[in-house]
From TrEMBL:
Name listed for the protein in its UniProt record: LysR family transcriptional regulator
Gene Ontology CC annotations of this record: cytosol
Gene3D superfamilies attached to this UniProt entry: Periplasmic binding protein-like II, Winged helix-like DNA-binding domain superfamily/Winged helix DNA-binding domain
Chain ranges of the HTH lysR-type domain: 2-58
GO terms, molecular function: DNA binding; DNA-binding transcription factor activity
PANTHER family cross-referenced by the UniProt entry: HTH-TYPE TRANSCRIPTIONAL REGULATOR YBHD, LYSR FAMILY TRANSCRIPTIONAL REGULATOR
InterPro entries: HTH-type_LysR_regulators, LysR_HTH_N, LysR_subst-bd, WH-like_DNA-bd_sf, WH_DNA-bd_sf
């Protein structure tokens, strides 16, 4: 295999035309001469005519140099990219979010961060919290934003930083029968059934007593889906009640397509961003974390 350093020395010699005229000063004349001789032995032909001053590249050396010149240029570019990667300027991140997080603020966070880091690329996985954390532990994801309440058991291997919680609510289409002006309790919602993004059973169990229900199973989901757009469309075209974070439907509420029901909903969305302890993080992760905190603090 050709030695990249020897190729760089050949380029240096051709550019300066002398073993002695070294603009870099990183190699002595004897070392440079030995490096070129070693390269000639490796490729099996004479590259430099040493009988003339300044030294002259042979015809075979000229063809050889034409072929390696692009390689040397790519090597310089690779060194730059490695430097940029170490600084978190370029590279690739794999991020995980729950459906509610992604719809609420995922686009705002990533758009803001991407604008500040135009050399970075991001792949986003949308899934349940347990699945995302499993992928994080397998180092298939660099960072996860989700609800830590869904994580049962051992979590000491995770670095979890809370971010502002978001109020949850019950939402329906404009013109829904429940919007007739009467006082509405949560039990009044039950006949219309619900739509949601696979709310965890243990959270529903906590919520049921607060709603005056005997069992969480009374909260009957007609539609479970991790695509919030599907849920919103379904609710706007039916009498289903959507249970989600207020931030998921802020645009539809603003446009009048979806209404918030006047029901006290004691089930807020509590989120954290999570990384894996004792794992080597991508250098761009700190800037992403800062963007998450800054963006949500301004909303």
């Amino acid at each position: 295999m050709l030695n990249l350093r020897q190729l760089q020395y050949l380029q240096l010699l051709i550019e300066t035309g002398s073993f002695a005229g070294r603009p870099t000063g990183h190699i002595t004349q004897p070392a440079l001469s030995n490096a070129i001789r070693g390269l000639e032995e490796r490729v099996g032909m004479q590259l430099i005519d040493r009988s003339e001053r300044p030294v002259r590249i042979t015809s075979g050396g000229r063809d050889f140099y034409a072929r390696i010149n692009s390689l040397l240029r790519e090597a310089r570019n690779l060194e730059k990219e490695i430097t940029y990667l170490a600084q978190g300027i370029v590279g690739y991140l794999n991020i995980g979010m729950t459906a509610v997080v992604s719809t609420s603020y995922g686009g705002i966070i990533l758009g803001t961060w991407q604008n500040e880091n135009p050399g970075m690329s991001v792949d986003v996985t949308i899934a349940h919290n347990p699945t995302l954390v499993e992928m994080l532990r397998a180092e298939q994801l660099d960072l996860v934003i989700g609800d830590p309440r869904e994580l049962q058991g051992f979590t000491a291997d995770l670095d979890m930083t809370p971010i502002p919680s978001q109020p949850g609510g019950a939402f329906c289409r404009a013109g829904h029968p429940l919007l007739d002006g009467r006082n509405v309790n949560f039990t009044d919602l039950l006949p219309y059934r619900f739509a949601g993004s696979h709310l965890p059973v243990h959270l529903l169990k906590l919520a049921a007593p607060k709603f005056g229900l005997n069992s969480y199973k009374e909260i009957d989901f007609a539609l479970n889906c991790d695509n919030i757009s599907v849920l919103k469309d379904a609710v706007m075209h039916s009498d289903l009640i959507l249970l989600t974070a207020l931030s998921c439907v802020r645009n539809e509420i603003k446009s009048g397509l979806i209404k918030e029901l006047p029901v006290k909903f004691n089930l807020d969305a509590m989120w954290s961003y999570m990384t894996l302890n004792n794992a080597v993080a991508h250098p761009a992760i700190p800037s992403l974390c800062k963007t998450i905190e800054t963006t949500l603090s301004l909303i």
